[in-house]
Amino acid sequence: MGHYWTYEGVQYSRLGDSETVRNYMGINPSVFYNDGYIQPEQIERVIPARITMNDFLEFTRKLDDVSLERKAAYDLINHLVEEGVNPAAIGITGSMLLKGEVRGFSDFDLVLYGAEAIGKSEKILRSLSAVPNSPLYYRTKEEAKKFYHKYSVLTDLSDEEFADTFPGKVSQGIMIGIPFSIFQVPTAEEVKILSEPKKLNNIQSPEREIFNAILENDSYSKFTYKALYQVKKTENDGKIYNIFCYDRACTEQAQKGETLLIDAEKLDENSYIVYAQAGFIKPLAKKV
Q1: Range of the domain at 100
Q2: Final residue before a domain boundary, out of 185, 212, 234
Q3: What is the pLDDT of residue 93?
Q4: Structural domain contains residue 242
Q5: How far is 159 from 141, CA to CA, in rounded Å?
Q6: Please, which pLDDT band fits residue 96 given cuts at 50, 70 and 90?
Q7: Cβ proximity of 260 and 209 under 8 Å
Q8: Cross-strand pairs, 7
Q9: Domain annotation covers residue 100
Q10: Are 142 and 221 in a shared domain?
Q11: Tell me: the pLDDT tens digits for 40-74?
């Protein structure tokens, strides 16, 4: 995730890859710019792309011919709102935001703001996926393995380890046949909590440790791009350690009370950090 993504062995850039833009131009020329890279100094004004959930729902209701992709997003958002998630905590991004979804091609991307909304949504989505003939589906372990290889997931987890937990992550699912991702991001106040300390001066080179720990607080462990696990090592005096995680494959890995195996770089006496392909966080046993 981030600036680059890989699909079936080909790596693309989200920012400056004009070939990626041209590929999209062939699919939907009404939405995408056809002249390659735009120099930043040529931009006179930036207009933020913003849409409220009420605007999105109202606009979609008025459409005469709603794409299946938009219907899937509408149904999922509407269900979250009806079940009590604050619409102000939900965002939409990607092609749907630009009203540029491509029938039969696009997925859809939502944004959830804040640990409270994320936790509430998780319970709602788990309940929805469990009802008979549910429109919401989460991939099986075998499908998760295929996802791992198809998108060349950058992580120290093996395909087997990735597939052990991926089906239980509510941020990656399929709604009425349309794949979706939920980007779970912190509020402004939570960003401060996620600020890791500087590495101690006496730690000259990366010092990796592997240890078992009990997850004491999972409130911040579900954020997409930078998560925080607060844990107690199984062999110590009960001290709480902060594990900062930049590996998306290692977010949403466990719930409070579960045992984790952690491979992380030491930052200071209280903190560790995991990067993509440089460490891991994986559950060992479920809470009884």
Answers
A1: 48-185
A2: 185
A3: 84
A4: yes
A5: 10
A6: confident
A7: no
A8: 10
A9: yes
A10: no
A11: 666 676 655 556 788 888 888 888 888 899 999 99
**28 lies in a domain?**
no
| Residue at which a domain ends, from 185, 215, 244 | 185
Number of domains in the chain: 2
| Dist CA 262 CA 52 (whole Å) | 39
DSSP-assigned states of every residue in the chain: --SEEEETTEEEESSS-HHHHHHHHHH-TTTS-SS-PPPGGG----------HHHHHHHHHH-SS--HHHHHHHHHHHHHHHTT--GGGEEEEGGGTTT---TTT--EEEEEESHHHHHHHHHHHHHHHHSTT-SEE---HHHHHHHHHHTT--SSS-HHHHHHHGGG-TTEEEETTEEEEEEEE--HHHHHHT-PPPPPTT--S--EEEEEEEEEE-TTTT-SSSEEEEEEETTSSS-EEEEEE--GGGSS---TT-EEEEEEEE-SSSEEEEBTTB-EEEEEE---
- Read off the pLDDT of residues 227-283 as tens digits, 9 standing for 90 and up: 999 999 998 778 999 999 999 999 999 999 999 999 999 999 999 999 999 999 999
Q: Give me 116's structure tokens.
A: 């409270």
Q: In the chain, pLDDT over 90 holds for what percent of residues?
A: 60
Q: What is the pTM of this model?
A: 0.78
Q: Residue 201 belongs to a domain with what CATH number?
A: 2.40.50.140
Cβ neighbours of 287 (radius 10 Å)? 12
